[in-house]
Amino acid sequence: MSVQYTPVIWNRNKIFYDAVLLIAVALYLYIYIRVAPGYEDVTKPIDGAILRMRAFGSCAFLMLTVILCIGPLARLDRRFLPLLYNRRHFGVMTAGIAAVHANYVLTWYYNFSPTDKYVALLSSNTNYGQVLGFPFETLGIAALLILFVLAATSHDFWLSFLGAPIWKALHMFIYAAYACVVLHVALGALQGAGDPIFTSVVAASVVLVSGLHFATGRMEARRDRGEETAKASLQEKGWLVAGELDEIDDDCAKVVTLSDDERVAIFKYDGKLSAITNACAHQNGPLGEGKVLWGCITCPWHGYQYNLSDGRAPAPFTEKISTYKLKLIGSTILLDPNALPPGTHVDPVEIGEAA
Amino acid sequence: MQSAALLLELGRWYLMAGGVVAAAFLVFGIDRVEPSARGSYAFRPLLIPGICLIWPLVLYRWFTLEKHGEDAR
Q1: Is A280 a residue whose pLDDT tops 70?
Q2: CATH code for A241-354?
Q3: Domain extents in chain A
C-alpha cells in the first residue's frame, strides 16, 4: 500500500452512512426508553436503569444481526452493496453500544457491593454445570471482548500489518461473538418474565442470520458448479486453463507455454485481460516481461510497443503480432491456443463483469 | 472469588504488557515494518487499544516482517 494512513478517511458517502446509522440508533433508544414505557404493564414496572440496560443491550444485538446479514445480502443482491460500504463504522458503533450496556449492568447490579464490581461480576454466579441459572454474564463478556478486538483492529493498517489471511481469520470471530450474544440472551433475559416480543425478535434474528448464510452458501455452490461445467465444456473444445486471475499483478503478464516455440503472454491491465504472443516481432524479445503503459505493452529489449487488444504497433509503426482469445470463468482464465493472424483485434475480457 | 480476582489481575498484567509493546511498536517498530505508516503520526494512537488486546500477535507479526520483509505479507 502506498498511501499514507490517516485516522479516518471521510467522504460524503461515509458521512451520510454514519449519520443515518446514528439517527437510527438514537431513534431506537429514544423509543425504547421514552415511548415504550407508556405501553408497559403497570403492575410490573421496570426501573429506569434496567430499561436503559435493555435498550442498549437489545440495540447492540440488533446491530450485530444487521452486520451479519449485510454480507450475504450483498452477495445475493448487489443493491445491498452500499450497506457493505462502511460496515466497519457499524461494527465500531456496535462495540460502543454493547460497552454502554455492560456499563449499565456493572453500575446497577454490582456498584453497591463492598467487593470490587468486576470481581463480583465474575464470582457472583459460578454454576457453569447447569443450563438454567447458567452464568450468562460470562458469555456477554466474551462477546464484548471479541467486539472490542474487532473494533480495535478495523483500521486499514491492521489488514496490511497482519496480512489478509490472519486479519480475515480474526474477524471471522464475529460469528463466535454472535453465538455468545444469542446464548447470553437466551440464558439470561429470555429466562425471566415472558416477553413474547423480545423472544420473537431473538428467534427471528437467528433464523434470518442462519437462513441468509445458508441461501448464500447454496447460491455460491450452484455458481461454482455452473463455472465448473462451463470450464469443462470449454476445455472439451480445446481451450486451456491458463491460471487464476490473482496470479497476475496489475500491468504485468503471465506467460503460458503452448509448445517449445510458442508462448503466450496474458496481461492484466485497466481491469481487463488480453493475450498476445510472447515474442516481439523485432527480435523475439520477451513481451511478457514488459510493462503495460496506456494499453500498450513495451518490449523490455528494444522498446517496441504493441496495442494489447490487436497486437499492432501504434502508428506510424507497422509491426504486428499474434493475438489470442481469452475467457474468464469465475476467477479462472481460459485460453484458446489457436493463434489469430497478427494484428487481429480481440475484445479484452472485462474482469469486473466476469469475475 | 479468588479465581475471579486472579483472572482480573492476569488481565491487568496482560494489558500493561500490551501498553509496553504498544509504546515500543509505535515508536520503533511501525516505521520499520509498515511503509505506509512512515510520516503518519495522527492515526497511531488509534492503534493502541488493538495492540494492548492482541500484543502477542503484534509481536509475532513484527518479528516475522522484520525477518522476511514484504514476503511475509
Answers
A1: yes
A2: 2.102.10.10
A3: 12-222, 241-354
Q: Please check whether residue A246 is in contact with residue A268, taking contact to mean a CB–CB distance below 8 angstroms.
A: no
Which amino acid, residue A37?
Answer: P
- Cα–Cα dist A152/B51, whole Å: 8
Q: Mean pLDDT of all residues in chain B? A: 92
Choose from A2, A113, A146, A161 for mutation: most chain B CBs within 10 A.
A161
Among all residues of chain A, which has the CA nearest to that of B65?
A161
Q: Is the pLDDT of residue B8 over 70?
A: yes
> In angstroms, rounded to a whole number, what is the distance separating the alpha carbons of residues B65 and B31?
12
A62-66, A104-108, A212-216, B46-50: the lowest-pLDDT one = A104-108
> Could you give the strand order of the β-sheet that contains A291-293, starting from the edge strand earlier in sequence?
A291-293, A296-298, A305-307
Cell of B64: 516475522
Contact A122 B7 (CB under 8 A): yes
Domain ranges of chain B: 2-72
ipTM, 2 decimals? 0.94
Q: Residues B17-25: what's their mean pLDDT?
A: 97
Determine whether the interchain pair B36/A157 forms a contact, defined as Cβ–Cβ distance below 8 Å: yes
User: Is residue B1 over pLDDT 70?
Assistant: no
Reply yes or no on whether the pLDDT at A76 is more than 90: no
